[in-house]
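Slide 14.
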Amino acid sequence: MIWWVIDEKGTQEGIKVFNRRAQGAEHPVFDSLGNLYCTASGDLWKGTIQVGDFPETPFVLFAERIWPLAYKETSDGNSSSLGVREIIPLPTQIVLELSRHGGSGWGNIVRVPNENAYEKHLALQWDELEDCPSSSCSAISPDGKHAAIYLRSSKRWFDVDITSGDLEALPLR
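Slide 15: predicted structure.
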């Protein structure tokens, strides 16, 4: 996937974001502090988009993998590989969809600490919050004070508690 920036000068064309080592970066979302979270190869990354040093790279993705959550496999059957999709970055937690790539998409909505698992030597574990047998859509307000996630399988929205990352089902209409 190619990312584009539209600058504040009113340029009519997008400017490509240079991305050296996180090929296939997807699912970008910013937190209220301006940190960029995204996925690459099913893992969770955190960084920024910065002004580049050269005219041929005016904007550059600077990011690092903070949670190695992808599960990769090979077999002669359907894929059971898992990876991160939707991302809701909260001050102390990250709520995300960890689901199957390809096929049905089954998985879970999970929560991990908003930390760099490598730097903190964190165990590869997460809290499972809800089953996600198909896919989800998530939203977070620019100020980071409100977040929600929609589970297509249950056809309902869940409010995300900004402090804990807990989910509360919103009433059906």
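Speaker note: The helical segments are 117-120.
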